[in-house]
Amino acid sequence: MLRLPVLLLNQNYEPLTILKLKRAITLLILGKVDMVEKEDGKVIHAVSISYRVPSVIRLRYYIHIKRKEISLTKKNVIKRDNHQCQYCGKKTGLMTADHILPKALGGDDSWENLVCACHECNNKKGNRSLKQAGMFPLKKPKRPNYFTFVLNEFGSPNAKWHPYLFQC
C-alpha cells in the first residue's frame, strides 16, 4: 500500500510529479503539504495515530521548477505514442520510429515528424510521403509535455486527479 501513487501539486495547483504514498505521508507529517483529495475509505495506521490515504497533495509554498526537455530518441517517440503503431493501431510486436515526411523528401528529426510504427507499416510506407503511400497517422504527433510523459509511466490516472491535469 505504501507504493500507491499520489499526485503532487505546486502551490498554484500545477501538477509537479507523482510520489509514492510513503513519501506523501512523510510530507504531510512534516507539514510541507496539504491534502487536497483523499482515497475513499482508505486509512494508514501508525502506532499512535491514523492517517487518511491522500490521492492529491499540494505544497504549502510555491517552487519554481525548470522543466527538463525530453530528448528526441526512438525510445521516447515510441513511449510518447504508447507503443502503438500510428498507422494501423497495432500494439504488439517490434516498433520503430518513422519519419512522416521522409528525410529524402526534406523531412527532419523532430517530434512533429516522427511517429511510432510497426515494421510492417514502416516497410509499406517506405520512403514515400503519406499521400503517396495512402497512409495517415491516427493522431497528429507533437512534442510531449514533461508531466504527461511522467504520467504515462503510471498508466491511466486516478479519477480524482482529472481536475488537476491539463490533458484529461
From TrEMBL:
Any one GO molecular-function label of the UniProt entry: endonuclease activity
Keyword GTP-binding in annotation: no
Alphabetically ordered keywords of this record: Endonuclease, Hydrolase, Nuclease
Pfam family, one: HNH_5
Residues in HNH nuclease domain copies: 72-123
Name of this protein: HNH endonuclease
